[in-house]
Amino acid sequence: MNWFAQIIAATLTTLVIVITIFDLRERRIPNVIVFPAALVGIIMHCVGHGWSGLLFSLKGFGLGFLLLFVPYFVGRTVGLRTMGAGDVKFLAAIGAFLGGTDVLRALLAALLSYPILAAISVLRERKVKLTWLRFRRVFCNFFGILVPSLKLYAIRLESQDDQSLTSVTTPFGAALAAGTLVALYTGFLR
Asked: Which of 188, 184, 152 is nearest to 60 (CA)?
């Protein structure tokens, strides 16, 4: 790694650690960190490589934004709160540092790490039974369209669910950070 790549890596590593700590504690990703970080990534590439660096960084920013904006928008349209807008902006900022190809690698690594982080959250909060019940209910409701008996089973599962208990949530920002570090420091999907 040359000196410029080392500075980019150190800056991005610091960024994802700070945002992960904030996301885990506050359950949100603040614009006051993400927007300046994206600008720093764009400026660093512009200073280091001129117009080609600017183009590289803007492509990563745009692709990072679009990769999560589409599922965010669709989720909001159908009434699901699967991810927040902060996650969309966070991946865009990551893209400003990594460029188009590597932001895609970071997202794929994040998607692979998310189930592991979710399982850790379920175990830590001791809600394995509740999570398993709700997972089966959602699964049976979805596939009940094709197999009507699954729909009936989902209704039975719903009657067993205590709605006063909250489900476990895992911030996707932590998975984005893990995926970014994997993409940055390994040859994952190269």
From this structure: 184
- Structural domain spans, the chain: 3-125+168-185
- For the chain, helix (H) and strand (E) counts, in that order, are 6, 0
Tokens representing residue 92 in the block: 């865009």
Which among 118, 151, 146, 143 is positioned nearest to 132, based on CA atoms?
Answer: 118
How far is residue 167's CA from residue 148's CA, in Å, rounded to a whole number? 26
Residues in the chain, how many? Answer: 190
pLDDT in tens, the chain (190 residues): 688 889 999 999 999 999 999 998 998 999 999 999 999 999 999 999 999 999 999 999 999 999 999 888 887 887 777 788 899 999 999 999 999 999 999 999 999 999 999 899 899 989 899 889 888 888 888 888 888 888 888 888 888 888 888 888 888 999 999 999 999 999 887 7
Rounded to two decimals, the pTM is: 0.85
- Tokens for 121, please give them: 């959250």
CA 134/CA 137 separation, integer angstroms: 5
How far, in whole angstroms, is CA 117 from its chain's centroid?
A: 11
| HEC sequence for 121-152 | HHHHCCCHHHHHHHHHHHHHHHHCCCCHHHHH
